[in-house]
Amino acid sequence: MNRVVVTGTGVVSAFGRGTDAFWQGVSSGTSAIRPLTGAYVAPIRFNNGAEFADYVPEEHFEAKDLNFMERFAQFAVIAAREAIASSGIEFSPELRESAAVITGSCLGGRPIEEAGYWELFHNGKNRVHPFTIPLSMANAGASHICMEFGLEGPSYTISTACASSTHAIGQAFWMVRSGGASMAIAGGSEAPFFLGNLKAWEAMRVISKDTCRPFSLERSGLVLGEGAAMLVLETLDSALARGANPLAEIVGFGMSADASHITQPAATGAIRAMRGALRDSGLAPEQIGYINAHGTATETNDRIETAAIRETFGPHADKLAVSSTKSMHGHALGAAGALEAVASILSLRCGILPPTANYLTADPNCDLDVIPNQPRKTHAEACLSNSFAFGGLNAVLAFKTYV
Question: Which CATH number fits domain 254-400: 3.20.20.140, 3.40.47.10, 2.60.40.10, 3.40.140.10?
Answer without folding.
Answer: 3.40.47.10
